[in-house]
Amino acid sequence: MTAVPLPAAAPASPGLRVRRALPWAALVLLLLVAQSLLVALTIDYEASRKQEQVEAVSGAAAAQLRHNVGTRLQELQALLWSEVSQPQWQRDAAQLLHAHPDLLRIERRDADGRILEATDSAQQPPLFTRIPRAGLSLDSELACVSARRNLTPSLSRSYFVPRDDGLGIEVIDACVPVTRRGQLDGTLVATIGLSALLDGAITAEQSRVHELSLVEGDGTRLARAGLPRGLGVFVAERPVDLPGLTLQLRVDSTATRPQLIPNLATALVLGLSLALFGVVLLLARDVRRRARAETQLAEALALRKAMEDSLVTGLRARGLDGRLGYVNPAFCAMVGYSADELLGTYPPPYWPPEMRDEYAQRQARRLDAGQSVADAREGYETLFQRKSGERFPVMIYEAPLVDGGGRHTGWMSAVVDVSAQRRVEELSRQQQERLQAAARLATVGEMASLLSHELNQPLSAIASYASGSLNLLQQPDAQTPGQLQQAMARIAEQAERAGRVIKSVHNFVRRREQAHEVISTERLIDAVLPLVRLQARKSGTRIAIDVPHPSPRVKCDRTMVEQVLLNLARNGIQAMEEATPLPARVLTLRVRQAQPRWVAFSVIDHGPGIAPDVAQRLFTPFFTTRHEGMGLGLSLCRTVIEQHGGALDFGVTPATASEPAGTEFRFTLPADSKPEQRA
Fold it and tell me: What does pTM read for this prediction?
């Protein structure tokens, strides 16, 4: 029997194929539109972000320009307070010119505008060598007229000053009026270079990717800063309002417009990746949902069982009617009843019989449906009774019990047996009373020891100054009154220092936080330097100061830290008195910025060093190697430094070709977190 072939299926009509392809075509078109919008939005976002960066740079540079000009005017006003004598004024002006490269020249003029004195910057060639100053003074005179009329600083319009090398520089003049006893006495004129002023207003990072220019209203460039040339794509302009002058700041970025190809490729890859990820999630979600739910349920049951077996805190669950629905093994062990004896009972058997009415009323209030959750979470203490009849205190913390539908079905309680804690608290209270009595006696001894040691240094200084004053009175001369006045001032200063020591030691014994202040390390060194040099002069010791400029600033209790420096310096001087030759007796006080948050102090001597057996006990209270010492100095020094959060240690300084070996005591103090504000 032969098989009869089936007839072939009729081909689909063109209209049916079009209807089938239409949804897919719409989907493809929708994807193309979405990808195009994504690319356009990405390009527009990147362009706006770059433009915002340029605007931010222009705003920051304009603000810095205004700040720098205001600072220069304030410093020029401070120069008015200098001595009128020519040498002093010349020195102050030279220091100001050296500190600021944008200041090129400073002139002092009388009330009629005639130049009395002038100082040019040593960092730049003199300005008015090719064309005299009188030939370029029109804009300066107009600014000075405005300054004298308003009695406020004023800036002139910019003008070009040619130089001998064929180049030139665009400058402005700052005119500051000088008043004496309320009357105009003259003017102070400072010439400011616009290029240097603009360089000081931007950071190195900004100068690498931006070109900054100062331009006039017609677009004429006055000065520029920045390493590259701007492309003119992302440009921001901002006016800079100065006293008597307005400049236009122009910032031109080196960035180009966002390119299409990289963004298009990124958008396509991102879109396809998101689509593929979505498909995978849809396929995997239905397959893994049931297995994940079963696994989580088994893990939750195992975790609950493990928690029940390991908890030492009793747990109980009560319904709204007050009947127990759940207790854990720890709760059963706490009250002595089994779970079968507790579940479903009311009132529970662990309530003391005489307190059941009171507990029932309290439970009614706590199980009230209108009670807030916050009040229910507050713990309360009560009394339970074990099956053996023993009473014990417990602390109970409750939280609402809510079912899967969000309905409040009861309360979950955590019960903690606090009987052992109450016994420990009573024992601790008794011990604390005994410790307080002993601490008061120890405080008296500590206060006496601290005062005797800390007051020894200022009282010794007062005695030295008083002895010197008596010697001056026995042999008076023309300089005696001034020297006596200086000695009396030193005595008063040391007396005040002794008062601060008493107050600081009192606070130290009470262990209160000291009144810390921010102070430069240079001032700390200068405060103890007269006393250190007085001690060093007796033994022929030279004092070397190694402090960077500007000196770091620290936050500390000034009086206590000065005592630490003075004590370490005196120890170093005394260590070199016998064993060190006279030429090698050098005591070095050094300050370094160890880390951004810490400043390190070093006191270095060239004495015989510290023996190993002495080094182990060096910071032990009442241990000393000198007959007249009390053994409290280094111990108190370490305590003071540790109260500031720092550390005190010591080490051996190796010998060099010019200096012998010695000992270095180092300690650290917290650096000031806020930078010093300069006018």
Answer: 0.37
